[in-house]
């Protein structure tokens, strides 16, 4: 069922354009990270700990971007999208798993960054973990997947348990149960399971990010003090530390914005009349998988160099094609 003319108002068209831009950026950025690391693995049959984490993170964000953008498009183009109970159940189940995977892998990346700078005095107690970093990463990713699976199964269990209670109480209660009540219960359980399931990765991410930001800030301040007292002292790593600090701060901000936006979007979905809040929340949520992946590409020398080569080859191909066409027309 196609939406009425009201759904194709200027604000709805603008919303769809934003969703299309987010979809394109997210699919290209995350697909590029996954594709490049898979090619590297096929050549060397090995991936570093960092590459394993960002490949898992990019893969989860690739599907998360597809899911969020598809939701944005379907909710505007098809009026009965949220009215189909089975479609809503399937969507919520898939979204809980992929969303939890994205949050958990992001927490793994933050912990990895934190352990990597274990040589700093603030993180001296993390030294043994740093030595076993390569062995711990696969187990960390596997535990994250199991955690996401348990969260998704828990939601399905509570949903089915609630339905069994209603069906065993009385047939009149089940008969009088409207679609709006069913949808409201689905959203409430999704909000509950998602909130409880996200507490552990959220705490892990916030703690490791704050420790890392404090350590980088102290290290940068110490290097600047040395350069002030000793004019000939110039540490080339200062700029690298500044870039790392900026990247970590942006990661921290984007992660928390996404968490708040998804919380608001789930909370507002129970009141489908509040369309503006849902549109803003889902648009902000869909920006996270693409924006931070682009930041990862810019901040990683290998990914940045590969992307620059692709863009250079594409610009060279376009210029060569235009030159060939010009010669053809001239002849």
From TrEMBL:
The keyword Glycoprotein applies. It holds the Pfam family TAS2R. The keyword Transmembrane applies. It is a multi-pass membrane protein. It is found in: Membrane. GO terms for cellular component: membrane. Keywords: G-protein coupled receptor, Glycoprotein, Membrane, Receptor, Sensory transduction, Taste, Transducer, Transmembrane, Transmembrane helix. It comes from the Eukaryota. GO terms for molecular function: bitter taste receptor activity; G protein-coupled receptor activity. The chain crosses the membrane at residues 12-38, 88-115, 136-158, 199-220, 240-258, 278-299. Its main location: membrane. InterPro entries: TAS2R. Belongs to the G-protein coupled receptor T2R family. This is Taste receptor type 2. It comes from Pelusios castaneus.
């Amino acid at each position: 069922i196609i939406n009425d003319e009201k759904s194709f108002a200027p604000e709805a068209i603008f919303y769809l354009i934003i969703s299309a831009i987010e979809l394109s950026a997210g699919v290209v950025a995350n697909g590029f990270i996954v594709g490049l690391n898979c090619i590297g693995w096929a050549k060397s049959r090995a991936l570093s700990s960092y590459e394993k984490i960002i490949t898992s993170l990019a893969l989860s964000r690739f599907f998360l971007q597809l899911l969020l953008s598809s939701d944005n498009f379907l909710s505007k183009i098809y009026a009965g999208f949220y009215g189909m109970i089975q479609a809503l159940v399937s969507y919520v189940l898939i979204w809980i798993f992929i969303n939890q995977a994205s949050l958990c892998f992001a927490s793994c990346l933050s912990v990895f960054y934190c352990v990597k700078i274990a040589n700093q005095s603030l993180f001296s107690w993390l030294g043994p973990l740093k030595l076993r970093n390569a062995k711990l990463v696969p187990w960390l990713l596997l535990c994250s997947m199991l955690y996401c699976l348990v969260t998704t199964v828990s939601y399905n269990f509570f949903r089915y348990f609630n339905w069994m209670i209603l069906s065993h109480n009385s047939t009149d209660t089940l008969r009088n149960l409207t679609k709006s009540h069913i949808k409201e219960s689905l959203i409430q359980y999704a909000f509950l399971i998602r909130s409880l399931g996200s507490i552990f990765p959220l705490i892990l991410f916030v703690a490791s990010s704050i420790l890392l930001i404090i350590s980088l800030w102290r290290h940068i301040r110490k290097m600047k003090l040395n350069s002030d007292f000793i004019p000939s002292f110039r540490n080339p790593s200062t700029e690298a530390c500044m870039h790392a600090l900026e990247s970590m701060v942006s990661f921290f901000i984007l992660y928390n914005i996404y968490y708040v936006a998804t919380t608001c979007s789930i909370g507002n979905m129970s009141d489908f009349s509040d369309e503006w809040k849902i549109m803003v929340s889902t648009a902000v949520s869909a920006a996270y998988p693409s924006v931070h992946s682009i930041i990862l590409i810019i901040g990683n020398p290998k990914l940045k160099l590969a992307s620059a080569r692709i863009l250079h080859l594409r610009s060279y191909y376009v210029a060569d094609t235009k030159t060939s066409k010009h010669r053809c027309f001239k002849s």
